[in-house]
Amino acid sequence: MRRPLFVAAVSVGIVTWTLYRLTMLPGMDLGDTPSFQARVGIALLTPRDGYPLYSAIGTLFHRAIGGDPARALNLVSTVQAALACAVTVLLAAELTGSIGAAIGAALLFGGSYTFWSQSVIAEVYALHLLFVALVLLLTLRWERRPTLARLALMLAVYALSFGHHLSMVLLAPALIIFLASTAPDGWRSLFTARVVSVAVAFAGLGALQYAWNFQTLLIQPGAPATLNEAFRQFWFDVTKADWREIMVGEIPRVMLSDHARMYAFDLLQQFGWPAPIAAGLGLLALARTNWRRAGLLTTAYLAFFLFAFSYNVGDAHVFYLASHLIVALLAVCGLVAVGDAFDQRRIATALTLLYAVARIWTDFPALDRSQDHRPEQVIAAMTEGLDDRHAVLLTDLNWQVQNGLSYFAKERAREVAHSRMPPLILYAPAFVADNLAISRDVAVTERARSALIAAYGPRFTIESDPRVTAPSLAEAIQGLPPGTRYMMCILRPTSDLPLDWTDIGEALVTLGDGGAVSVPDGDYIAIAGVSGRRPTFILGSNRPFRRSLDLDEVSVRIRMESWLSADTIRRMGFGHVIVGRRHTLIVERGVSFAAFDAAGRPIRTAYASNIFSPQRRYLVR
Fold it and tell me: Which of 440, 468, 496 is the endpoint of a domain?
């Protein structure tokens, strides 16, 4: 079985890498992603940055292939995700004894919505899941043949994983209980001098990965005065103690039921309803045949699930990923058990594979970011006409856009000089005067302008920068030929980017027959039609939905893929409009609009009240 299993793992790795490569984001992004992309090749990595292993791998990969760092790091994610799927084949085969079921498990997880979305951009989760799967695999192989060498290999990989993502500590309870309950000479045999020495040695070697971060702390301006103080600050920053204090376990009690509904939505988004049912059956079947393995997976699942469930953060859905891997593994255990019960294992395996492939086929258009150039376009428009000889840009932006600007100015437009307004506001008059004295324009973004006016009132004359156009939604959609198909989605925005209902109303009047359009209530609103006529489809809902409609003889699919009470960050967008098999519109919070032709090709796209909205720019005189 060893050679066919190896071939199956390699084949799944190649297939999933091809899938991710075809749908990979071509360049930079907004959010966390550009901050990772900007670290490629840097010599200094602070404790707050973390992720030394991920940063080192990204830098080595970029040096090997060259080109755009953003693209290189996106490509790294596709490779890491494909390796995670290959290891999942080996792990599922270890649990089920079936190569076909193992392939099904890998495809089911590899094609799941959140994992796929994180595998086509520069993000840390593909490598994290590779380590989770690999540690579980090595643990089960140690159980099958419990030698010191196998235990040492598992401990080495586990220690290495902490150089990437500290949430690997969540696996510790499951591993300790499993090792103690399966050790052939009893749990005390795990605490012999040899075993403890090996564990301590690998833990020390794993910790050395953070020497990079610690060194930066010691040489940066304002470095700690003593080594003891340096260790305290390092631990505080690398574990993000301040962040954990206000985020971990801080879900308000009134939100617990909403988070439970969010998890149910998220689980169905990944696998549909059959997989969770099969996972329950798989847990029961595994408990009958090997209760220790059932306990390992259950304890690991609960640790990952409870952490994500109690994490009061705007992208909690990505922290469920490790628990989703265990659901996929248990699901194939359940399907194999059902097949064995009816002496139809081959049919059960075939159904698993067909179901996984069907879900990949269905989700492919929505998860295809290969043509997504929005992040670069919005930053390029914001910095249009600026260079450090003639202008400096002061910003006060949403953090996701700010990260995008930092990468763009570092790699794409190094001539753009920029600085954040908040730390500069106290000496803004001197800064402006000095720059104007050398004939250097001082440009400011919308919120930076507001901050300047609030602090200094009429001291400055601030006027619009004619080099930048930031049309309103109504202006952006003017001039569409009559009969043009369109879709407008309105999602409850974040508090810092409120909706302009007057602008939305004017846009709908422009799109329609000149009459006012009544917009329904709801967190999720979709309006579709053809220009020059009243909308033919209007739907408002407080829950995410999926709808199919025929728009002037063109098949359109609307997919709302977020839970707005919990999601403030969705790296794949908050929803999608699919026309035929084409990804026509990525829906964000606020307003997302696309006019498109019969093939689903966007003719015009516009955003408002979200991070992809056009940014106004002003000049300080």
Answer: 468
* 588 found inside a domain: yes
3-state secondary structure of 180: helix
Give the other-Cβ count within 10 Å of 458's Cβ. 6
What DSSP assignment string belongs to 98-125? -HHHHHHHHHHHHTSHHHHHHSSSS-SH
Do 455 and 604 lie in a common domain? no
**Helix or strand (DSSP H, E) at 489:** strand 485-491
Q: If DSSP codes are grouped into helix, strand and coil, which group holds residue 28?
A: coil
Quick: pLDDT tens for 92-103: 999 999 999 999
User: Between the CA atoms of 250, 256, 261 and 264, what dihedral angle is there, to the nearest 10 degrees?
Assistant: 60
Distance of alpha carbon 55 from alpha carbon 38, whole angstroms? 10
| Structural domain for 514, as ranges | 473-612
Percent of the chain topping pLDDT 70: 99
Contacts of 172 (CB under 8 A, 6+ apart): none
pLDDT tens column, 515-553: 889 999 999 999 999 999 999 999 999 999 999 999 999
Instruction: Give yes or no: residues 557 and 412 share one domain.
Output: no
Per the domain annotation, does 620 fall within a domain? no
Same domain, 211 and 258: yes
3-class DSSP state of 609 = coil
Tokens of 324: 């989703």
Q: Is residue 132 part of a domain?
A: yes
Domain identity same for 449 and 548: no
Residue with tokens 């705007």: 314
Nearest to 619 by CA among 351, 390, 403, 422: 390
How many Cα atoms are found within 13 Å in the side-chain-facing hemisphere of 232? 6
Q: Are residues 195 and 320 in the same domain?
A: yes
Domain check: are 386 and 463 in the same one? yes
CB 615 within 8 A of CB 402: no
Q: State the Cα–Cα distance between residues 543 and 560, nearest whole angstrom.
A: 9
Indicate if 418 and 510 belong to the same structural domain.
no
**Which tens digit of pLDDT belongs to each residue from 130-165?**
999 999 999 999 999 999 999 999 999 999 999 998
Total domain count, the chain: 3
8 A C-beta contact, residue 566 and residue 526: no
Does residue 621 form part of some domain?
A: no
pLDDT in tens, 475-498: 999 999 999 999 999 999 998 899
Residues 169, 224 within the same domain: yes
Q: Which letter does DSSP use for residue 259 in this model?
A: H
Answer yes or no: is pLDDT of 1 > 70: no
Calpha distance 142→5 (Å, rounded): 18
Is residue 244 scored above 80 in pLDDT?
no
Last residue of one domain, picked from the residues 363, 383, 405 = 363
- Alpha-carbon Rg for the chain, nearest whole angstrom, is 26
CB 391 within 8 A of CB 620: no
